Amino acid sequence: MSDPQSPSPSVLAGDGCRRLLVVDDEPRSRASLERLLGTRGFSVRAVAGVAEALAQLERERFDLILLDLILPVGDGVQVLDRLAERGEEVAVVVVSATRSVAEATRALRHGACDFVAKPYRLDTLLAAIARACERGALTRAQATMQARLRDSERLHRFLVHASPDLVFLLSGDGRVRFVNDRVAVLLQRRPESVLDRPLLELVAPDHRGRVSALLDELREPGGSAEGRVRAIELELLDGADETPLPVEIKLLALGDGGETPAGGELFAVVRDLAAHRRAEEAMRRSFDLLHHVIAASPAVVYAREPERPTRFIFVSDNLRQLLGYDPEQLVNGALVWEGLIHPDDLDVLDAMFDGDAQRAANGEYRMRHRDGDWRWVRDSVRLLCDGSGRAVELVGSWLDNTEAHRLSEELRRQANLDALTGLLNRSAFEQRLQRAIEEARREHRQHALCYLDLDQFKVINDTCGHIAGDAVLRQLAHVLAACIRQQDTLARLGGDEFGVLMEGCEHAGAIRVAEALCKAVGDFHFIWGDKRFRLGVSIGLVSIDATSEGLVSLLSAADSACYAAKDAGRNRIHVYTADDAELARRHGEMQWVSRINLALEQARFGLAFQPIVPINGDGDGAHYELLLRMYDDDGAAVMPGAFLPAAERYHLIGRIDEWVLETALAWLSDHPEHLDGLNLCSINLSGHSLSDPQLLDRIASQLHRHDTIAAKLCFEVTETAAISNMTNALEFIEALRALGCRFALDDFGSGLSSFAYLKNLPVDFIKIDGMFIKDIADNPVARTMVRSINEVGQAMGMRTVAEFVDGDATLEVLRGIGVDYAQGYGVGRPRPIEELVRSC
Predict the structure, then answer these.
(1) Is 0.85 topped by the overall pTM?
(2) Fewer CB in 10 Å around end: N or C, the chain?
(3) Tell me: the pLDDT tens digits for 276-318?
(4) CATH-assigned architecture of domain 166-279
(5) Is 142 exposed, middle or buried (CB count within 10 Å of its CB: 0-12, 13-18, 19+)?
(6) CA–CA separation, 686 vs 396, rounded Å?
(7) Superfamily (CATH) of domain 301-407
(8) What are the C-alpha distances in Å from 661 to residues 656, 664, 732?
């Protein structure tokens, strides 16, 4: 995160974007964002994981969420899905360390409106928040508009179906032949009481003359068609108390089939003027509201004919902002709608309007702007029907979605590029390399791979700082790019390492390119202030053909060849041979030697314990194995499998065994209260220690000083180590058993002669090799092997321990066989030794 004092967009919380939720598992990041955004007027809540975020969303609503995708438990996309399930319109900005375009795109598709990659600049984050707030406001405005549109539609239906109008059918002499039921509401008269009566009897006396004259006019022979329809305002008499009721009456002469209306029927519609005026006012307010909502909406609102979706009835003025056209051009047909759609997106329209009269549809496609650019729009359309279910019109909206698509494309592009040099990054390079491997196998073509590691780069970093180091990498990217062929691929693989993929390149051609790269770097001078530097490059070259192995093997081979080039004097090219891998492996082991020595000097080793539990019964006290851990500079634990091979090869294992024993004895001595409940504490010894008589003397000396502890110790030796040093192993075991210690034969069954030697080793426990235990539930052969080992061991008076027990199913099989003890993640995971006092 950038310095909070650095220039940044002016982002302040507004009425529509004030409540903000931060979901991030990094405490410093949460605290920083809470403090920063709080000073800008946001009400901030900060949580560390998915479960807390979902719980917070249940308690309160938020306008904006800053969401990390990579969380310890759960997936950040779960938060997006929960918002979608609840139908909440909340702007979500993903702030995550992932560089995967697939993850970024997935987040956008699940509803995120923006994506900011960690580490980020403050101005970048604030700009994203500003866009999200603005987008949220636009989305809320659109939702409000759509809600008001629905309200307006319901209001119109109500006005139609609840019309207060009376309908009369009059005979030629003005008598009532039909009246609708509204007469009972409007005039308080039963319909049958009005039938066959002259209309004039229902008219207030003061208005009868006008009505009579109007009837005469409509019955006048030879009257024009226009003269047969008249509307006047008058008063009708209420049937309950003869109270005058002001109305408007419209009369239409229907005629009798001849040329004149004489003797023909008359049609009359009577409307309560008071109710009509109230309805007109409500309608006017409804249309005014609709007009203002459409004008304020960021979307283009339209209406189309349902039978001809390309025929527009209405298009809002926002079309000018979206596409630069006058809306009337679409309505009058001067502008052809299909001509505005990108040819590649016509199938989206086909899916939206498939002829099945869908009630609602959504889609995204491109429309051409008047200036020729393409704009992405989100089309949301709904079919409106009348009371009988007949389609009336299609109403919908176009929302500009161009920026979201631009952001998605930019994320996809950035995901393949190295941010510092602009070259392809390792992920994109490996994708191309994988395609080249497959092509070599399929088409028997030959390619070449170069692995470049800069020489003396560290000198620049240490002398001038990382800014200078970044500068030299950017400059060298241009230098290297000028040396390769047009069809070759150059990428930065990390740090000061580069890769070159030469497709369709024979070995001789690859050598020429590699030599050009080596010479170009050697000729390059880097100037920083008053300092001038020269660098070199070590290049590992490996050919790719139909016999090449997979991606990992090729990269490993190129890396090994590169190391061989460095080992041979640097600033040169080395073509891969099988011996290079062994050289690189030994180099790696030597690095472990340095780390092991440093760990011993700086107390970076630690102990953990894993319980060994009785399968049947409660046992007679705590029983566990002590496990070794080494910690790196960052405090992260390094498992023994990573460093013990180097310790054994370079004779450091004895020092490690002594450290373990001394530390364990010291800890047990410092916690006498723990000894009362302790049955056995198992400690591993290497094959080297079994052959070291001086170590045996030192162990015996220490146990004499801690005589109460000796009976609590069980030393574990591997079957291979015991058999390889049989004579020494027997002397070692017998000497310590005499002091009260017990022994366990570890990884039993892994050797070819396990049973043959078992009777010669005076051990108390047999630990059955985990390769049999892990498959025991499904593999009858493994089950038979375990049963045999268990029976032989118990027959010889030894207790049996099953390693790698991963769950209840395995435990049940072992219980059926009769194995005594179980150890593994299924019964107890390793924990720091400091927790022993609390757990035992």
Answers:
(1) no
(2) N
(3) 777 778 888 877 777 777 777 788 888 888 878 778 888 888 8
(4) 2-Layer Sandwich (3.30)
(5) buried
(6) 77
(7) PAS domain (3.30.450.20)
(8) 9, 5, 15
